[in-house]
Amino acid sequence: MGEIAGHSFVASVYPNPVTDQFAVEYKITEPGPVNIQLIDINGKLISQLSSQIKLPGEYNDHFKIPFNLNPGIYFIEIATESGNSVKRILVQQ
Fold first, then answer.
1. Third-level CATH fold of 2-91
2. Tens digit of pLDDT for each residue in 24-37?
């Protein structure tokens, strides 16, 4: 969870561990850009999963794991006008 200027932001990623696809569930309270990124354990950007302008509401976005991704620990970063959240995921084969 992140908090910015009195706004709360909650996001969840499931299932975890991940084998082939996962969902990112979140709610935003202000219109604006939503960026979802897959980052490796060293902080390197692996994939820009989504970059969209969205209206306030609840969202459930689904993504596939890139086919050449090695098993291990990764992070999903969700950045919005309402706040930011980073979730750890375990990718398995």
1. Immunoglobulin-like (2.60.40)
2. 999 988 899 999 99
